[in-house]
Each structure stands twice: as C-alpha cells, then as structure tokens.
Backbone:
C-alpha cells in the first residue's frame, strides 16, 4: 500500500460503517441476512458499554479524508486458569478491494501490541469457519495457532447454522 493504514478505536460516529461492514460480512461468510435494526442497536450498545468490548477501524488515508477499509471487534473472556482476560477477535471485515494488502495484519498488530502492554490481558483468541481457508492462512501468518478446543453454541437469537461437512 502506498499510504499507511491508520488504526483507531471506533466511536458512535462509526455506527453506520460498522453496520454496513457487519451486514456484508454475515452475508459473505455465513449467508445470513441480519436484521439491520437489531444489528445497529447491538453496535450502539457495545460502543456505549466499553466493559463489553470495543471495535477498531482501519482507515486508508484519502485525498480529503480517511476512508474506512476494515474493522474488528474485541470482546472479553475471563480466564481463572490464567488470572487474566483473553481478548476475543470477532466481526473481522476488510472491504474486498483491500484484501491481501495487509489490512488485517495492521489491525492484528495494533491489538496485539495493545494487549501485550496490558498486564491484565493473557492472550488473544478468535473463531473462524472451518471452510474459510483464506482466513485460516491470514491468522496463521500473524502468529495465531489452531486451538485444542472445538466451539459449541446454543444461539437463542439467530438459531443454529447447519455444520457443512
């Protein structure tokens, strides 16, 4: 990339961008059409309650203003085994025309540096669809490794998605 990627914490003014990115990501990765009102309310809730997590926005500087090109969300999990907090990476999205250009790497580096400098953070985790090989490769490139754990869920809002063989 010719211009450096700028990473910053998201705020309420980013609600429309995050909503659009999450709608696109859910459709692309899970073939889900999310209810936009519920999604927007969920984003506003997280942005207004930092004890639950935060979003970061990746921006590409433009001629007049920085253009959002990616996002990720961090939520928290307490680990009694480690007496610390895991940061869970969720809602990762990079606009299609910027993929393969280091946007996720820049976002990951940003949150990893922040996490390593906070003695309360014991690690970073994420989940990824089994068949999303491109994402698996991107996560390995930044130093994430497959976990020993499989993920199970009981979703009371969106319901279960069938597991693809």
Residues:
């Amino acid at each position: 990339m010719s211009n450096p990627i700028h990473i910053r914490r998201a705020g309420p003014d980013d609600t429309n961008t995050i909503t659009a990115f999450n709608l696109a990501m859910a459709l692309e990765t899970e073939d889900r059409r999310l209810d936009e009102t519920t999604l927007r309310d969920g984003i506003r809730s997280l942005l207004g309650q930092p004890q639950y997590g935060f979003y970061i926005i990746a921006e590409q500087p433009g001629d007049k203003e920085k253009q959002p090109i990616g996002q990720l969300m961090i939520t928290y999990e307490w680990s009694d085994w480690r007496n610390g907090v895991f940061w869970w990476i969720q809602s990762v999205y990079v606009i299609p025309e910027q993929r393969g250009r280091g946007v996720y790497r820049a976002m990951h580096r940003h949150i990893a540096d922040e996490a390593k400098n906070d003695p309360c953070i014991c690690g970073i985790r994420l989940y990824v669809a089994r068949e999303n090989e491109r994402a698996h490769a991107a996560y390995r490139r930044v130093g994430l490794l497959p976990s020993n754990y499989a993920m199970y869920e009981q979703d009371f809002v969106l319901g279960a998605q069938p597991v693809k063989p």
The first strand starts at residue 6 and ends at 9. The chain is about 30% helix and 25% strand. Strands lie at 6-9, 53-60, 67-79, 84-94, 121-126.
